[in-house]
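Format notes (please read before filing issues)

Several people have asked whether sequences and structure tokens are stored in separate files. They are not. Every record keeps both together, in the order shown below: the sequence lines, then the token lines. Line labels are part of the format and must not be stripped during preprocessing.
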Amino acid sequence: MSTNKTVAGCQITRRNFVQAMGVTCLGIAAGQMMLGCSSGNSSASDAKEVVVDVLVMGGGGSGLAAAVTAAEMGKSVAVLEKLSTVGGTFGLSHFETIALDEGTGEFYDADGLFEYWMQQTGGTCNEELMRKVTSQINDSLAWLGSFGVEMYTTANTRPDAPAPILFKSPSETGTLQGAAGGKATTALAAKLEELGGTIYLETVAKSLIIDDSGAVTGIEAESAGETIRFLASRTILAAGSFESGVGGEGNPVINEYCPKLLGKNMYHVGMGYAGNTGDGIIMGRDAGARVEFHIPYVRGRMMCGNTDAQLSGVSVLVNGGLERVGNEAGLFRELYDAAVENGGNECLFTLVGQNNMPANMDAFEGNECLMSAPTLDELAGLMGVDEGALTAAVDDYNSFTVTGVDEVFQKPAEYLVPIEGEPL
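Then the structure lines:
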């Protein structure tokens, strides 16, 4: 059987499904909606028609997983992807995924992980769904492994967690690797092809096809200027990534469900695609699906302005009142809460000295948000804050670096580096 296939005017092979690089700054998981339960015919049209058992909108991680699962059940499957390659935001990710303890007692088991995530979401998440997810993680990883996706134990990337969490990643080095998610989506796409599924690249879903009874019977899409009507007994929407518009113009999903992401402190860096505006979420909602958002915070990183200049956990993050906002080595929820406070427009400062200066200062060259001075008093003037308050904040923090104990946020001792030297 040939490994080449022409779909929607594009030739794809097993090897070129995902050819993208990127680093995670803001990760938002795309959800799935299953719509439609009808074998009835839709209204007549002059458009070309493709009929399958299962139709999936979105060729990212969740969409491909759904497609392969259906194909393994013997169903005919089509995947619609608006880009020229599959993988989506998941393909660009580090793909650091949580795994369950296998009886050592060192890491979380399914129950412990369930409790942790319920606490992290403030108890707002669907308990039944969360229980299902946390109990099946290792089974899902084993399923990916059956397609040749090897997973390795990586460093704990959640230092804010009260107990160690076991992480797995396709990275053999044990450190996070950009676009590692592409290894999984490449394997999933190849498996789908092997099972007879078809991926339609550069095919943009325009609207759901809904019959007179209100059932979703497919999707009308466009590819190379041609309208195609995809009809299916089951339609799965897995095109929910909506990071495009964060910290700026927004998009229908952000504007309606996550307005806190519009503040100037939110910035989307080097991850995802400009067209990720939650198309599947909006289509599902307009068709009558219930939309539930349980995102109490979004995991991000400390950046210096709207650039790729990243600050590490050894620096010190304070708000406009010069109060630390949390453990800088494990800032996830605290960072988000500080960033969106007062509409996301309050100034945040990251304090560094010569000992905790970023290694690659070239990334900060010409950065308008970078302020540097030989003394704290002069730095306070540039920041527009009280000199005494800045000195007191630095002295308080430096006292923790002497004792090795962060008495406020329990930042690990290895990240406690004094703010001193010239320039600051």
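For reference, the curators noted about this record: The chain has eleven helices and 14 strands. The first helix runs from residue 61 to 72.
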